[in-house]
Amino acid sequence: MLETEIRELLAELAGDDGTSAASADHLAAEARRHIPAKLLADWQRQCRALAGAGLSTGTRWGYVRHSLVVAEQLGAQAAFQLAESVRQIAYIAGRRAAQALPHAAAAAVRRLGTPGAFRLWLNTVERYAPQMPDVLAALLEHTDRVLGQVGIAGYEAWVLNGLRASGGDRARRHAYFTFSDPDAERALMREAGEIVYADLDRRLTTYLTALWRLRLMVRAVGGSPGRPLPRRASFDGGVVWVPETLPGVPAAAAVDLFRASLAHVAAHAMFSGDRFAVGGLKPLQIALVSLIEDARVELLALQAFPGLRRLWLPFHEARPGGAVTAPTLMARLARALIDPDYRDGDAWVDKGRAMLFARRVSLHDPTISRGIGNLLGNDLGQMRVQFNARSYIVEPAYRDDNLGLWDFGDDRSDNAEGTDIFDLVRIAPQTGDDTRPDPCRQEQAPEEAVNRARPADAAAQEEGVPVARYPEWDYVIARERRDWATVVEYAPVPGAAFTIEQFLKRRSDVVNRITALVRSARVSRPVRVRRRLDGDRLDIDAAIEAMISRSAGETPDPRIYMTSERRHRDLSVLLLLDISESTNDRVHEDGATVLDLERQSTALLAHAMAELGDLFAIHAFCSNGRNEVRYQRLKDFATPYDNQVKANLAGLTAGLSTRIGIALRHAAADLRRQPTLRKVVLVITDGEPSDIDVQERRYLVEDARKAVITLNHEGIDVFCVGLQSDGDRYLTRIFGRRNAVQVDRLELLPEKLPLLYFRLTS
Amino acid sequence: MELRAYLIADEPYYRSIGNEVWLFEAAYARRIPLMLKGPTGCGKTRFIEYMAWRLGKPVITVACHEDMTASDLVGRYLLDRQGTVWWDGPLTLAVRHGAICYLDEIVEARQDTTVVIHPLTDERRVLPLEKKNELVHAHPDFQIVISYNPGYQSILKDLKESTKQRFGALEMGYPAAEIEAEIIAYEAGVDPVLAGHLVAIAERSRNLKGHGLDEGASTRMLVHAGQLVAQGIGLREACEVALVLPITDDPDIRDALSAAIAACV
After folding, report:
1. Helix/strand/coil (H, E, C) string of chain B?
2. Does domain B4-171 have CATH number 3.40.50.300?
3. pLDDT tens column, B54-77
4. Tens digits of residue pLDDT in A617-640
5. A547 CB near a chain B CB, below 8 Å?
6. Structural domains of chain A ordered from first start
7. B249 in reach of chain A (CB within 8 A)
8. Min CA distance, B107 vs chain A (Å)?
């Protein structure tokens, strides 16, 4: 009897959606099986209620199907809760999210397994839905992945992390919950308790600096569907790639493994000479030469740092005996070469060891690796031991894949990370094969997508929005022309934030110096104030003077105390960058452009200002006649200094002319609204004001001067950093002698600018 | 003689690392004001004590700080029952009675404070006591020496150009490895091999200068570490106590430094 009813219900729910009778039959049978007879009526009611709530057929049907899975695993009550949640979510976050929920619930049930955990999951989803209606569907679609990695315990933390990190920015929130932001994956790993390389980067690179004064660029490479995590570190020139996480390695050991791995790569960086030419070497010989080279550089490192042996040896687990295969013999040889207490007994291993030890005095010569490796390779070949180049992985785990040691005679090695070294030997050189993942590309992907989108969007980008008109000063008539020039604001075009990060990392010495400065210039530094009416200590000089006056019969000055006060930095700074055509000039031949230097110094300065907690904005300007003074807001006072800003900075391009006065007036409009006591515009410019519609050089200089004077009257300080050696003439005229600084050696600008800033604002 | 308390009775241990003793003597012979530049704990103060002993002159040391006023240097009127009495500050004492006045970490003092030494540092060699209306002519033995650590704070705090140009300067640094080991072995009473290890360890921390540390481990810190080892503390622990924990609160840097120290032995 019931079964007919259910079938009717299903037919009703399906509407004219064309669901086949067979699937309805099947579901009706399922319902009978998984839902107790006395609750079947309730279940039907829930299904009907969803239909009544105006949800789409897909949602209703999804519920019918997946609630049965839920009921099967966790009982009918859980299925009813799901119906309630579907209605809630539909109400809060819309139909798309509601439709994703039943499917997600089925996945959650598989991952969670208890009614309690399932309820907790539903509650979490409902609780956060109002904060993320736009991305809830995305979150639900990834339920299986997220719960599979962090379980219910880490679920909420991961969601919250995404909400916090995006700070109300929809685009970023979307990137996080759709996993197009690598941070999402990283946060997931963190929640799962895995050691993520990014968390160790600073301490491990510092470790290498301490040992060898070496600054290595280390990039973590993550896995993604279809591309497994690399299993070994790799290096190439100045860059080292390491796996982002070490799956299956316990947390305590993971730190050691990362450390051992980087110490090993650093040993290569210190002691490995030029790349070996592959020539006619066979894969086995390449593997053995690499192995000897590994041992050679480690032995050299151990001469200075014997303690490194404690770091490396635990990973050498090879033991004498066992099956005689090439990988096991090589692992034993690797151990025999750096473990003085190891006794192997195998003739080949002992021979390898004896050969290297015989050359102990000439370890600094890299050619010995090649010699010994070749001989050992021949021996092993004659022993008829199998060597499968495809499946060979360098042992022990901390050693890198040795790709950086070899010169394959073409440019493939430039992005050959993740490739099997022997592929390069076997496969004939063949360029243009770009299916191989490039680790750099991975993180850049979103930004590159933006870059690539540029031509298509060009039209939209070209459309600026006219936002304001400002007067201009004509010195000839000594009068302002009203509403003379128009400011057109353009949205900044994001570039690769990565390049800015990389620069900051490369100049970590300067960054650190700035950080140290920041600490000493920090906001609330106590200042002693003397001669106070009250205070916590006597001001000894004032007290004595008071006593003297009293003895002399005069009225003593009662201000005889001193106290400490905290002085706060109360300051907003607007950094105004000149990006006119001339900033495309190269400072030296084949060197950086002026714009590059502006970019770099802005990055350093922004770093300092963010550390100081000063309010700051970064804007850029150029002009194309008086009706188009282009203005870009890379960062506003209210936005945080984050990757988006760095991307905007990286994406700056130079062009057109320099109508500085109008830009200053527009900047002032922003600064005026700042609540701080002190307001500063810091202009970085490389040339004399000029524009296509102005013939007379003096006109724009005088206008800019007028703008500066007006700003000063309003209490806004204007400083200028001039990047042209002969700029003294007009910059002094515009900004005043004390407020214009010339930087004579442009290469030093990135270092100089933050220091200048400290001087201006302290 | 007023300044007996300021005389150095016994020869302080000082291991010369260059011709600085000779240069100092030459400068003293003509009473040229001197500036000792160098990182903290490299032996500037010890060098001054040694030179004072060598020359048989008293040395008055003033540790400068940012609240120091000119009165703290020159002196001030104090009160007693009869009324006010003048009290000579350390600088005046040295000027009057012929001592070497050593102003330690002079950049810490405010710039307007340091200008009181200007008349003492040119041919005039006088110290005007404005409040007392007295002009003190420097004793022939008087010499002024300042220490100046051009650290990162020097952008915010620096000597006035007019102050800097009154001094000759001796650059002091951490000694070469063998000499430093010799110093540590002597001062801490440890064997030369251990002292060598300590120097190697110091090299690790000095590599981090500017990359997380403002300054690497000084010779003084190494002596402390050596002394702890001489007291029976294990080397790793002694280094942790004397070399790592004092200079950084940053867990990453601490970890890096400890691991680098572990690699050295």
Report:
1. CCCHHHCCCCCCCCCCCCCHHHHHHHHHHCCCCEEEECCCCCCHHHHHHHHHHHHCCCEEEEECCCCCCHHHHHEEEEEECCEEEEEECHHHHHHHHCCEEEEECHHHCCHHHHHHHHHHCCCCCEEEECCCCEEEECCCCCEEEEEECCCHHHHCCCCCHHHHCCCEEEECCCCCHHHHHHHHHHHHCCCHHHHHHHHHHHHHHHHCECCCECCCCCHHHHHHHHHHHHCCCCHHHHHHHHHHCCCCCCHHHHHHHHHHHHHHC
2. yes
3. 999 999 999 998 778 888 999 988
4. 999 999 888 888 889 998 888 888
5. yes
6. 2-179 (no CATH), 194-428 (no CATH), 497-519+570-761 (3.40.50.410), 525-567 (no CATH)
7. no
8. 14
